[in-house]
Amino acid sequence: MCSVCGCGAGETRIEGKVHSHDDKAVGACCHAHGGEHDHHHHGGEGCCHGHEEGHEHEHGEGCCHGNDHDHHHHDHEHQHSHAPGLSQTRMVQIERDILAKNDAYALANRAFFNTHGILALNLVSSPGSGKTALLARTIASLKDELALAVIEGDQQTSNDAERIRAAGAPAIQINTGKGCHLDAHMTGHAVEELSPADGGVLFIENVGNLVCPAAFDLGEAHKVVILSVTEGEDKPLKYPDMFAAASLMLVNKADLLPHVDFDVEKSIAHARRVNPGIKALIVSAKTGEGMEAWYQWLKAARALAVAGMKLAG
Question: Is the pTM of this model over 0.90?
Answer without folding.
Answer: no
